[in-house]
């Protein structure tokens, strides 16, 4: 009989997993740079209730349970709403270390509010809220929005380095700006990754150096990385990146010499892509020079002649454009190249 009673108690205290109602759990994640922000929360519905000032009281309120202290709103339902930062962040302009935090809000009658990040992320609701555990507390300005029945977190206004986390419920929006030092994080991560398997190939060092070049950061480190890549693979791919870094640092003479070395060993595809890069940068004459060089090196390549035709199109040189597109078609081009040449010839009235 005793064993039966124990089984009965165990069954009652450890039920099977069932759907959570009426406030289902939800997760929303946003990547900013290579960092992530993740919010775990529960989604109550309005269900015809008066939300602000009633279901969610204005200001700070005593809970009547747990610590008994005045506390902010749990920013959802059930357990703490939590927010996780994969890297150190700035929240509303204030530094927040990487980690998981309890997320709370305050709403006031005048549409102002506060956002609070608590180092206690494991409690239930606001009942055990302790201000001494605050990592961040700062004021925010609420916004009026169309009605939202289910409490919803979202990310808006995303940029390379930031996004606005917003809580939308009823006709109110709680916005919180989150920022990361993306370039610093990427380069620090690259340095760590290059200590592992990525560092055993030239592509890893090249991609790290190229990130610095494209984002105009830490050229000195970029030079060290690209030199390590060149030591493994002296090619157009590596030399052209070093040329770009030297040029960005103001060393134009060495940059131009190195680019000449890179062009001398470029493959057909590399030279072609470099021509388009120059064309996109508005350097039409240099682009045509590269496309011409490719036709000289690869006279039987329909694609090389097709690209040269495009170069002349950007210069407004209709005669030479037509001649090169026709040359491309005469070389039995692949379907995609043929379609491109014919398209331009039709636009130029030559087909």
Topology:
Elements: H1 2-13, E1 25-32, E2 35-42, E3 61-62, E4 70-71, E5 82-85, E6 89-91, E7 94-96, E8 99-107, E9 112-118, E10 134-141, E11 143-156, E12 162-179, H2 182-193, H3 202-215, H4 219-232, H5 236-248, H6 252-264, H7 268-280, H8 284-297, H9 302-315, H10 318-329, H11 335-347
Antiparallel strand pairs: 1-2, 2-5, 3-4, 5-8, 6-7, 6-12, 8-9, 9-10, 11-12
What's the gyration radius in Å?
30 Å
Main beta sheet: strand number and arrangement? 6 strands, antiparallel
The proportion of residues in beta strands is: 15-25%
Number of strands: 12
The number of domains: 2
Based on the structure given, which CATH architecture of the largest domain is correct? Alpha Horseshoe
Compact overview of the structure:
By secondary structure, the chain is α+β, with helices and mostly antiparallel strands.
